Structure formats: structure tokens, C-alpha cells
């Protein structure tokens, strides 16, 4: 009986596994490239001192908490383009790129201005003075990079929606190589360049994001693969209907990323209020950087599943939609189980790669055990949110995300960390609890919606699942 069940499972899902992996692999490499940029920045900055590493954590947190909403808006482009492609409507897919460039451009200017201005507010956050002084100028450099970063993402999300995922992989790898070399020149002052230390990492990041925007944009606008969409002939005239479609998915998606990242960044700020805040936050940054590598891999599975689910939505095929989404969840669960074992057994080695301070290494190694525990649930909630976005269901998932991180994670972390005296470990206990809740709720919602659509048929096209 078990053998027959296994054969049935493989017969249903093996093609979905293959197709999801085919789409996901380039996305995973690209995601790892983005994560490695941050990791390499941390490793190279950490060679200066753990205070520089803590300041980088503070500045990057400030940048991403203010721009993550814009990133989320761009992610709405992929399911919209995938649906249009599945429905055989290339003109509609092309229009989402044009309107996405308009929305992404204005969002980048607005959020970049917020990052620039917020640098003056860092002293009010009750953080170590040395951290704040280093983080302020670094934040202003990052603010300028918001525009090329978001425009690159608009081009990338469009190509992803058409199942063309390799181009962004190659562009990201080029950006990674350039960023690493520029770090080496500008952080340490090699080859006659000025020694700019943390600011040097900021200028390297800015230059690499400009390069990636130009490469990705040039490919989408000029490659033969995309000539049928005739982007340049139509111009960039605003279309209120398409912009509303992007914002209808993008605003809730942006809020989901804001709630999630905001909670982790908020935890970093709370850690700064603890005794020995710089060492604790540096350890938190090390553990988060390692966990973010596995998370970026699983978001590649989520992206592949989102594309396939959105394409099935355009074809009006609820059976393929359900199987594609569940295949992504199975892949994420299997990978995260393996990743958890790697983090547990390799935690001492990983922490030594970052900093030489024994106290920071000790705390970070312990935090990697927590990261290993929530790996499985983090993967499931990431894919669950992605496939729900693929069927254009974003409102209830946004509520689930808010509850998970701001009603459960931070309050529980505060209670355990400060009231019960568990310190930084208490904050991470809170995140373990919240991720279990998010994973269960999001997976259940996708399963319930797709089962209903299989029984009753899909609603009218281009409407969210609610």
C-alpha cells in the first residue's frame, strides 16, 4: 500500500518538481548572489571591527525597513505577467512592464528620500554612539542605490513572469563579482584607492546596483526573445487601470515583506538596548546572514511555484494550480530539513568566518541552533505566501503575516528576552513560535482555496481569491 501511494504521489508531482526546479534554479542562484553580496560585505567589514559590523547591521536595517515596501510592490509584476502569459496575451504582459517601471521609479525616489532623511534620526534610536556615527554616512550612500535596485527588480520580475529566469542569474553573478572587487578596492584602499572602510562598502553596493540595472534593462529591451512585446515603441504613458492592478497586489505584498523584515530589524534594535548590545547585535547579524542564505534558496522555490501557479491561473486550470503550489512546498520542506542539519553541525565553523571576537562567536553559534529549528517553517511560509500571491490572494495573507510577526514574534520575544531575562535568545524563541503559526496558516489557506476552486470552478479572471 505504501508503495502504491508513493507511486501515485510521484506520478502526480514529478513533472511539477522538474518544472519548478527548472524555473527555480536560476532564481536560487540569483537570490544567493544577492545574499552573498550582503554576506561578503559583512565578512569584509567585520575584518575592520565588530563595531563596524554592528553599524552595517543598523544601517542596512534602516535601509531595508524603508525600501522593503517598494520591493514588495515590484514582486506583484511576476504573477500578473505569468497570468497574462498563460492566457496568451503578450500585449497585456508588456503593459505590466511599462507601468511597473513607472510605479517602481516613483517608489524608489520616495523611499530613497526617506532613507536619506532617516539617517539624521539614527541618534534618537538609543543605539551605541560609535555605531550611529558610522551608520549615518553609510545610510546616505545606500539611499541613492534605491532607484537602480528597484528598476532592476522591475525588469527581473517581468522576465521571471515569462519563465525567463536565467538572465537575472547571470546579471546578479556579474554584480556579485563587481561588488566584491569594488569592496576590496574601497574598504581597504587597495591599488591606490582611498581607504573608505564602511563607506567604501556603500559605494561598492551603489555601483553594483547601477550595473545590474543597466544589464537587466538592456537585455529585456533589446533581446530577440522579447521583441514581440515592442516595449520601446509604446513609450511610458501611465495607465491607471494597470497601475491599480499592480498596486492591488503590490501594496499587500509590500506590507507582508515590511511586517516580516520590520520584525527582524526591530529585534536588532531591541538587542541594541540590551547589555553588551554591540556584541549581541553583531552575533544576531551573523546568525541572520547565515539563515538568510537558506531563506533565499527557498524563496527561489517560491518564485518558481509562483510563476507556475500564475500561469495555471491564466489557463484557468485549478488542478495544475494546486499541484504546482504543493510541489513547491514539498521542495521547500525537504531542502530546509537538510539546511537545518547543516547549520547545526557547521555552526562553529560558520561563526569563525565572520568575526574573531570569542564572545560574538559563542552567541552567534547558539543563535544558529534557533535558526536551524525554524528553517522548516520558514520555508513553508515563504512558499505559502508566494503561491497565494500567484493566485492573486494577498489580503488575508497580509493579515496572517502581521499577526505572526507583530502580534506574536515581537511581543513574545520582548516578554521572554526582557521580562524573563533570556536576552537575545528570548527574541529568537519568539520568532520560532511566529514562523510555526505563519507556515500552518498560509499552507492551510492555499489548500482550502484551491480545493474549493477544483470543486466549484475559478472566479472571474484577474480577481483575487478573496
In short:
84% of the residues lie in helices and 0% in strands. It has helices at residues 2-46, 50-75, 77-86, 90-118, 129-144, 146-161, 166-188, 198-222, 231-234, 240-272, 277-315, 318-354, 358-373, 375-390, 395-419, 424-456.
Describe the global form: globular
Low-confidence stretches: none
Q: In sequence order, what are the helices and strands, one letter per element?
A: HHHHHHHHHHHHHHHH
- Rg on CA atoms, Å: 22 Å
Figure out the total of helices: 16
Chain-wise SSE layout:
Blueprint: H1 2-46, H2 50-75, H3 77-86, H4 90-118, H5 129-144, H6 146-161, H7 166-188, H8 198-222, H9 231-234, H10 240-272, H11 277-315, H12 318-354, H13 358-373, H14 375-390, H15 395-419, H16 424-456
Helix pairs in contact: 1-2, 1-7, 1-11, 1-12, 2-4, 2-5, 2-6, 2-10, 2-11, 3-4, 3-6, 3-11, 4-5, 4-6, 5-8, 6-8, 7-8, 10-11, 10-15, 11-12, 11-13, 11-14, 12-13, 12-14, 12-16, 13-16, 14-16, 15-16
Provide a descriptive summary of the structure in words.
The chain has 466 residues and is an all-alpha fold. Helix content is 84%, strand content 0%. The chain has 16 helices and no strands. Helix 2 crosses helix 6. The longest helix is centred in the N-terminal third of the chain and has 45 residues. The protein is globular. The mean pLDDT is 87.
Amino acid at each position: 500500500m505504501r508503495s502504491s501511494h508513493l507511486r501515485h504521489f510521484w506520478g502526480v508531482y514529478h513533472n511539477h518538481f522538474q518544472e519548478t526546479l527548472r524555473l527555480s534554479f536560476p532564481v536560487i542562484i540569483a537570490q544567493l548572489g544577492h545574499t552573498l553580496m550582503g554576506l561578503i560585505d559583512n565578512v569584509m567589514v567585520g575584518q575592520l571591527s565588530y563595531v563596524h559590523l554592528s553599524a552595517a547591521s543598523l544601517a542596512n536595517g534602516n535601509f531595508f525597513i524603508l525600501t522593503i515596501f517598494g520591493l514588495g510592490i515590484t514582486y506583484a509584476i511576476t504573477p500578473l505577467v505569468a497570468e497574462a502569459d498563460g492566457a496568451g496575451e503578450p500585449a497585456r504582459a508588456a503593459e505590466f512592464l511599462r507601468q511597473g517601471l513607472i510605479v517602481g521609479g516613483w517608489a524608489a525616489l520616495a523611499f530613497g528620500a526617506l532613507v536619506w532623511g532617516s539617517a539624521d534620526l539614527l541618534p534618537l534610536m538609543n543605539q551605541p554612539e560609535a555605531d550611529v556615527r558610522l551608520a549615518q554616512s553609510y545610510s546616505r550612500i545606500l539611499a541613492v542605490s534605491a532607484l537602480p535596485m528597484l528598476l532592476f527588480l522591475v525588469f527581473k520580475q517581468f522576465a521571471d513572469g515569462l519563465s525567463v529566469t536565467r538572465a537575472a542569474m547571470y546579471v546578479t553573478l556579474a554584480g556579485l563579482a563587481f561588488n566584491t572587487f569594488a569592496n576590496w578596492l574601497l574598504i581597504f584602499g587597495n591599488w591606490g584607492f582611498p581607504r573608505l572602510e564602511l563607506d567604501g562598502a556603500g559605494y561598492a553596493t551603489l555601483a553594483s546596483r547601477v550595473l545590474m540595472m543597466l544589464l537587466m534593462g538592456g537585455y529585456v529591451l533589446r533581446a530577440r526573445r522579447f521583441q514581440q512585446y515592442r516595449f520601446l515603441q509604446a513609450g511610458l504613458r501611465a495607465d491607471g487601470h494597470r497601475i491599480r492592478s499592480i498596486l492591488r497586489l503590490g501594496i499587500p505584498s509590500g506590507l507582508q515583506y515590511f511586517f516580516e523584515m520590520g520584525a527582524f530589524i526591530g529585534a536588532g534594535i531591541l538587542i541594541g538596548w540590551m547589555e553588551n548590545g554591540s556584541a549581541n547585535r553583531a552575533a544576531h547579524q551573523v546568525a541572520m546572514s547565515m539563515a538568510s542564505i537558506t531563506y533565499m534558496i527557498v524563496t527561489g522555490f517560491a518564485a518558481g511555484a509562483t510563476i507556475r501557479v500564475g500561469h495555471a491561473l491564466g489557463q484557468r486550470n485549478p488542478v495544475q494550480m494546486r499541484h504546482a503550489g504543493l510541489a513547491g512546498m514539498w521542495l521547500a520542506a525537504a531542502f530546509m530539513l537538510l539546511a537545518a542539519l547543516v547549520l547545526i553541525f557547521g555552526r562553529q565553523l560558520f561563526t569563525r568566518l565572520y568575526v574573531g571576537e570569542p564572545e560574538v562567536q559563542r552567541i552567534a553559534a547558539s543563535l544558529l541552533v534557533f535558526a536551524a529549528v525554524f528553517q522548516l517553517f520558514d520555508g513553508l511560509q515563504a512558499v505559502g505566501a508566494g503561491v497565494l500571491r500567484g493566485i492573486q490572494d494577498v489580503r488575508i495573507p497580509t493579515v496572517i503575516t502581521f499577526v505572526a510577526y507583530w502580534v506574536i514574534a515581537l511581543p513574545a520575544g520582548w516578554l521572554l528576552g526582557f521580562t524573563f531575562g533570556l536576552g537575545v535568545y528570548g527574541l529568537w524563541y519568539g520568532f520560532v513560535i511566529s514562523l510555526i503559526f505563519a507556515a500552518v496558516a498560509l499552507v492551510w489557506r492555499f489548500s482550502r482555496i484551491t480545493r474549493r476552486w477544483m470543486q466549484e470552478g475559478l472566479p472571474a479572471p484577474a480577481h483575487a481569491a478573496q
